Amino acid sequence: MPDRGTSRATTLGILAILLWSSSVAFIRTLSEKLGPVSTIAWAYLLGGVVSLAAAALTPGGLSRFRRLPRSYLWGCGSLFVVYSTCYCLAVGLAASRLQVITVGLVNYLWPSLTLLLGVPLLGHRARWYLVPGMLLASAGMVLATVPQGTLSVPVLWANVVENAWPYALALVGAVAWALYSNLARRLGAEDGGVPLFILASGLVILPLRFFFPGPGRWDARVIGELLYLVLFVTLAAYVFWDHAMRKGNIVLVAALSYFTPLLSTAFSAAYLGVAPGPFVWVACGLLILGAFLCRLAVRENGSV
Q: What does the pLDDT look like over 103-162, one tens digit per residue?
């Protein structure tokens, strides 16, 4: 039976999945008014400052960051910056609100990659049905994120050719986040460095604003959406996920993360006013079955 600390960390990981399901919609609406680079810079800079201020008030204060293993600090920190930059730019640079959902398809490869990479990186044992489980979940992701059920190789290829940068950035981000999720556990940092990673992401992205200036249309709704993106999507979700990857049931959380594309598609469709295709319910069944098979196929360090 898992102890209370493991159960709590796992619950926080699931909550992070729910919060991230709203990220595509909010990043997109903010990017349309502030520009994608400005949106990311503001979100991560403010999130980093707030999280560091909160860390300073906890026992040990900011001095606990000096005890972080250098391998974790630089390795996971670099992967965090790469993911946050690539993912947010991919969403912000998509040609239309409709294409935002299809761009998410590539990013949503990270749950299956997290489970797959957990085998060589964390020593998890995998059974043969990990492969069909991943294929079923991936098929569900395709159906959930392709609008209007336009699932065909020519349509997908035309979308990639027309707007290649967002897809390439989303793919790089998916690989980076899968590596981060596993290495955060393997490198064994007792305390996470997420506040530092969030601030570092903002500092890396900030200079890009000089090359990609945005419209800068501020209003009350923009401020409210930005506060939500900073406090919940950028700060709370990342802290929760990092804690789950280090101390929770990583296999269960990674398997449940297969529901992210479905939840994100449903939320984005409602918030952005985009009608999803009829295959969304079929996708739900495939996602559930794929996650179930992957959960059964992978065991943490050979445990039952």
A: 777 787 787 788 788 888 878 887 888 888 888 877 776 665 565 656 666 766 776 677
Three-class DSSP category at 191 = coil
Q: What element of type H or E holds 125?
A: strand 125-126
What is the residue whose two structure tokens read 């969030």? 198
Question: Is residue 226 very low, low, confident or very high in pLDDT (cuts 50, 70, 90)?
Answer: very high
Q: What is the DSSP string of 201-223?
A: HHHHHGGGGGTS-------HHHH
For the question of whether the overall pTM of this predicted structure is more than 0.90, the answer is no
Contact 299, 115 (CB under 8 A): no
With contact defined as beta carbons under 8 Å apart, do 258 and 140 qualify? yes
Q: Does the structure show a pLDDT above 50 at 299? A: yes
How many structural domains are present in the chain? 1
- Give 53-116 as a DSSP string: HHHHTSTTGGGGGGGS-HHIIIIIHHHHHHHHHHHHHHHHH-SSHHHHHHHHHHHTTHHHHHHH
pLDDT of amino acid 302? 41
Greater pLDDT, 224 or 274: 224
Half-sphere exposure of 255 (CA within 13 A, CB side): 21
Residue 138 domain boundaries: 4-302
CA distance 37 to 57: 31
For residue 212, which phi and psi values (nearest 5 degrees)?
-130, 70
Closest CA to 91 of 233, 235, 197: 233
**Spatial distance between the Cα atoms of 198 and 202, rounded to a whole number of angstroms:** 7
Q: How far apart are CA 70 and CA 44, in angstroms?
A: 22
What is the helix (H) or strand (E) element at residue 126, kind and residue range? strand 125-126
* Percent above pLDDT 70 for the chain: 88
**d(C-alpha 12, C-alpha 88), whole Å:** 22
